[in-house]
Design a protein that fits this description.
About 40% of the residues are buried. The protein is built from eight helices and ten strands. The strands form two sheets. A six-stranded mixed sheet has the order 6-7-8-3-9-10, sandwiched between helices. It has a single domain, classed as 3-Layer(aba) Sandwich (Rossmann fold), CATH 3.40.50. It is α/β, with parallel strands linked by helices and about 270 residues long. It starts with about 25 loop residues before the first strand and ends with a helix. The structure holds adenosine-5'-diphosphate and magnesium ion (MG).
Length: about 270
């Protein structure tokens, strides 16, 4: 991994640690249920999901619309509470966190991107990207510096003072990626990140997500209904249907390529 910039200070366990696969899973979801009551009907959005994600992995959650993918991601993100079952992230059961701890978790441990970008229209690129640092009460100078670096990382330094409606969809998603990165989270949670983009632009976004995974060591959980996309980028595919995990497979093509690429990053004869 020589020459690539790494996550500073916070110490991502996935970076430079070959033995991460034998450590406790980074995310452990057990018998997770999320039910909604709609009048007399009970909707089982999640109905006993059990899965694990290892530190440094790139996992895709696949399934048709309504299968429960976003529900899983929102629960990992701490945006929602389960009906029953548990979500344990880095050995912390999210259900046992206080309101303040959960807020800190959302701010520092996970970064999220969505199909619809979710940028604040009245704010510039720079302001959107630094917003999570404002919440984290980072001082101005450091905010500016880190926001500038994150925006440069996604190649938009010339657009710092533009507003989202002056940007293309692909550029808006790059801003959202920069925002997701800004507090240096260990996890990137992506919900249909290319769903509103054409395939070429979507590919550019996915290549950035892959860089975050490989170079920064971020653990990626991506939701998608597109099998081809998952097969191109993810190391492992987890299939959901009707709120349950119905299949799971290591992506042989990706796993092999990733190993090859990592070998290729080392010194060459
Ligand atoms: N707030 C909610 N109230 C009622 N039903 C919901 C709510 N959120 C999700 N659902 C239902 O839960 C199921 C799973 O939704 P979701 O996780 O969004 O699926 P996916 O992301 O795979 O399309 C769907 O049937 C959906 O309609
Ligand atoms: Mg969804």
């Amino acid at each position: 991994m020589g020459g690539v910039d790494r996550w500073p200070s916070r110490g991502n366990p996935a970076v430079g640690q070959a033995s991460s696969s034998i450590a406790a899973p980074a995310i452990r979801i057990e018998n997770l249920c999320r039910h909604y009551r709609m009048g007399d009907a009970l909707i089982r959005a999640l109905d006993g999901v059990t899965l694990e994600v290892r530190s440094g992995e790139f996992v895709a959650l696949l399934g048709s619309s309504g299968s429960g993918k976003s529900s899983v991601l929102n629960l990992i993100a701490g945006l929602d509470r389960p009906t029953s079952g548990s979500v344990v992230v880095q050995q912390r059961n999210l259900a046992q966190l206080s309101r303040e701890e959960l807020a800190r978790y959302r701010l520092h441990t996970v970064g999220m991107v969505f199909q619809s970008f979710n940028l604040i229209p009245s704010m510039t690129v720079a302001e959107n990207v630094e917003l999570p640092m404002r919440f984290a009460e980072v001082e101005r100078e450091k905010r500016d510096r880190l926001a500038g670096a994150a925006v440069a990382r996604v190649g938009l330094q010339a657009r710092l003072n533009h507003r989202p409606n002056e940007l293309s969809g692909g550029e808006q998603q790059r801003v959202a990626l920069a925002r997701a990165l800004i507090n240096r989270p260990q996890f990137l949670l992506a919900d249909e990140p290319t769903g509103n983009l054409d395939s070429r632009t979507g590919g550019e976004i996915m290549n950035m997500v892959r860089e975050f995974n490989r170079q920064l060591g971020m653990t990626v959980v991506m939701v998608t209904h597109e099998a081809a996309l998952a097969e191109r980028y993810a190391e492992r595919l987890i299939f959901l249907a009707d709120g349950k995990v119905v299949d799971e497979e290591v992506n042989p093509a990706r796993a092999a390529t990733i190993r090859g690429d990592r070998d290729a990053e080392g010194p060459r004869p």
